[in-house]
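Hi, does anyone understand the following?
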Amino acid sequence: MSNAVRVGMILVGAVVAYYVLAWVVGLAIKIAVLALIAFVVVNLVTGGKALPWNRRSLR
């Protein structure tokens, strides 16, 4: 009985971990895409002045 319970708990833990990981990865991808879009928009609005290498050369 204890073996079956242990296996069941491991399976439940694995499924929960999988869903949490999938959610976190999905969230990270969404944040990365939004950050990229925001970066592109800011660069278009400022004429490329927000680029890190341009900022360094301006100082």
Remarks:
- Residues 2-46 form the longest helix (45 residues).
- Residues 22-59 form one domain.
- Residues 4 and 27 are 34 Å apart (CA to CA).
